User: Fold this.
Amino acid sequence: RNPSQFTINPSPDVVNISEIKRHLHRFGYLPRNNNDSDAVSFEQALSRYQKNLGLPITGKPDSDTLSHILLPRCGFPDDVEPKTTAFHTGQK
Amino acid sequence: YVYFPGRPRWTRDVPLKLTYAFSQENLTPHLTPTEIRRVFRRAFGKWASVIPVSFIETEDYVVADIKIGFFGGDHGDGEPFDGVLGVLAHTFSPENGRLHLDKAETWAVDFDKEKSTVAIDLESVAVHEIGHVLGLGHSSVKDAAMYPTLKPRSKKVDLYIDDVDGVQSLYGTNPNFTLSGLLASETSTNLAD
Assistant:
């Protein structure tokens, strides 16, 4: 990622739907095999993301949401499902 | 606040003593080892002031409970870093103890000295990641240290009531902790802001 993407107030067209989906998958909101026809789960995933980030829950990729998607962040998933492996090793 | 699924925590006797060490081969060129150690000592101190846990620095990286290092790109834990900005750091849930920071970031301790527009405050990220080391997930409270995003050139180094509630529900309360002390520090921080 080059820093030019990360302006503090990005223009919404910087982020396209596939990038949003990649972001939602990366942080635990969408399963890996989410296919394009599954619009319902995309909207649900986006609503959960907005709830977890304390944003207005619209289910739509509004500019507030896009701004947050572009912000630097911790790599730990927000929605950690018990099956999440990489970060949920638990024991030493 | 949220826990990790299964609510993992460090399960030794209270008062809990955890050691931490830095990977000497994996530091950042933007800060001296002394600056890094001072920042983490302060960050650990924030959490140690609210729960009956003490953090002791050790030279022995292999034996330490908490292993801290700066790594670039794919560093072998299945979660490669992504270059400047994007993902800044990640940590593993208890009792794993690994705390990894992205070496590609412009880590800073003083924004008066570091002028880069993509500089990231090390102490803010350290406080956040130590929360994960202890067993906290991400908070939806924007003022909380456990909120997942951090803007470049911004600082968030104090624990918020949400962070304290979460970590004390896992480990109990430090006998010297006072809520008024926490609120006073929040107020002073807000005034400073």
About this structure: The longest strand of chain B covers residues 16-22. The mean pLDDT of chain B is 94. Chain B has four helices and seven strands. The first helix of chain B runs from residue 33 to 48.
